[in-house]
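Reply to dn_fold:

You asked what the input looked like. This is it:
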Amino acid sequence: MKLSFTKMQGCANDYIYLDCRTSGVPEQIAALSERLSRRHFSIGADGIICICAPVTAGADAMMRIFNADGSEGKMCGNGIRCFARYAFEQGVVQKSAFTVETLAGPVRPELLLTDGRVHAVRVDMGVPLTDRADIPAVGEGPCLDVPLEAGGEALTVSSVRVGVPHTIVFVDDIERAPVERLGPLIEHAPLFPQRTNADFVQVLDGRTVALRTWERGCGPTLACGTGACSTAVVCALTGRTGRSVDVRIALGTLHVDWAADGHVYMTGPAAYVCTGDAACGEPG
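and this is what came back:
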């Protein structure tokens, strides 16, 4: 069996997009995401994103995301920008601002157009959640500048939820940040009963930070949109930056505004990589 796909990337956070509006999500989607995401042996990606028909009134489309390890995620900031461009240019929606149903709730992207062509996507990521019960994290109240032991090291971390949970560790040198060593330990720390994403952040000035992310279910990734949003919120809450921040990642920059209405707005690129057909049900 052949499966038609489109691969897209936002600042190198790449996903395989499947149009499942009529066929439905494949029953073997978890195993399929694991196999097709394998770099060097298959298409290679951070996971699969399915374009689905909405099931909630008021939504224009539905996004379901499956990580490279087969687990289902709730939201992806870079992924939804690419989803929005795909939906607009492939005729799934006929308007430049619309509502996408996700497991993290409704998300509203807006396509920024120049001469009718998409040059960036701005996404209303909603109101950040800061209480431990919402992240979730063990304990009560906000989870800001709290101690955490990982790999024998005493860390100070801060956690918020912008669609999905993120835990921020501030470092002096982003290039030397122990992402691969401490990332999985933070992800599985007992403080986080549903695991967490781990973000290593260097503050460059009051309006600019650098970010590297260990994604829950994926490992180290070149970009993370929800991580950039969470980083901006934590930086503002702890007085390290203002509420409008450029977040530098490996291959680009995302701009994040924590606006006066309480919502977090993320702006960044969305690009096509390739289209093709993948073999399903065969050894990979």
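Residues 30 and 70 are 4 Å apart (CA to CA).
Hope that clears it up.
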